[in-house]
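Convert to structure. Protein one:
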Amino acid sequence: MSHTPLRILPSPEAIGDYVAALLLSRCERARLTGKRFLLGCPTGRTPRPVFGAMAQRLADAPQDISHVELVMMDEYLVPDAGGLTYVPADEPWSCHRYVRSEIAERLNETLPARCRLRDESVWFPDPRDPPAYDDMIAAAGGIDFFLLASGASDGHVAFNPPGSPRASRTRIIPLSEETRRDNLQTFPAFGTVSRVPRHGISVGIDTIASAREAVMVVWGAGKRLTLTRIRHADRYDAEWPATVIHECAVREILSDRDAAGEGAF
């Protein structure tokens, strides 16, 4: 059974507010010591309450986040003449579009220009040289905080499928059928699973585990299985990649009541 702390909150919105307060506090502490703050970010449904709560807190009490770097976890890839490249940034399922519209624009909306996230503060791994991403992270001092989410059906984290080695780092990954079906639920604009790209570029398990602090967010009844699998592990289990949370130095699992289930723990 896991030794990672589990905090059960009433709702996704309560989780969002809890993480927003934590993150903005960490960001300010870094700013006061003259340091950059590297925040590892997922996209999709799970982190939306967090980014919404951060935007509201910044509107209520503005603070300088110009030193924050958003280290994005992954992006879909499609074939081109030279191999594989990012999906077009204007596609509704593009992670580039997500970070622009659901993170950067929302956080920056009420802040003065000098306090905003900068365009160059959003990082993505380059499919032409995936290992360079880990080198870039290391050169910047490492990820301070990783916000994590788990696939409902197979426990994937970022695009890491079951079987991903503990030592894996940033790489191009063929997307599993389970991951593609989960992503269809996240982005119904795909229409059918056949339109979900078959490859992605993703940080690896070791990339995530190297963060100084992390939280794994699970909410909704559909995430009950993944929470159970995470809680019944005490270290990384390659058959359920979301168990990487147990490898992070400072860590916490955050669940709402629907994911936890009545009397589940």
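Protein two, convert as well:
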Amino acid sequence: MGSNPFDIAGKTAIVTGGAMGIGFGVVERFTGAGANVLIADLDLEQAEGKAASVAGAGQVAAVAVDVAAPGAGRRLVDECVSRFGAVDILVNNAGIYPMTPMLDMSRESWQRVIDINLTGLAFISKAVANKMVEQGTGGKIINVASIDALHPSMVGLAAYDSSKGGVLMFTRSFALEMGPHGVTVNAIAPGGINTEGTAAPLLGSGMSEAEMKAMTDHFVAGIPLRRMGEPDDIAKVALFLASPASDYMTGELIVVDGGALLG
């Protein structure tokens, strides 16, 4: 009972989309807790720059990867094991959220969202889980879903919402499969989070700055805690799910939205 249930010192994690936003928040939390982290990101230059900036006790490395590419999971496992000797934790954070009404959606745009947000997540999980089974020491898989897996937030996110709903059901299904191997599979559903990419879908939609501010103000007014979340709000929950503190949890979704879904 005297040990720290949140201790992940010496563990090794892969964080996809780890060069910015929620992903980098997770990297900082994990390395601060003593874990070694492989940042997997499409932008290698940014990932390497962020890796060099981390001041935690754990080691950090970076690798360029498109999570939707065939073989991405195997490559990440090989890179992580080569650098750190094992893989104990996976955080599936990489995702995109282009804003396009379904009536204007192309098949190609729809498929790209599903390929990155759901199919890539599933097959990276498969590769990492196979390695965890081979290692025989259990493991932790953490999927970043969204409150949009439970309730659509706005018009234009049909592909994104569908992908995140799929992430929730994949989490539950894969948890059943991995439980006997000592591997837990859980998900986090962030609400509105202040990140570098938060405004990107709105900017792409042609909204003016005044219109975007009005939309954000309206959204924040509906949050009981009256603020947007920060990446570290999600990272602290990811640390809990990566640690022994969550050992008897699997197939669960933790909503971290400041109470937004209460409205």
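Residues 41 and 135 are 25 Å apart (CA to CA). The radius of gyration is 18 Å.
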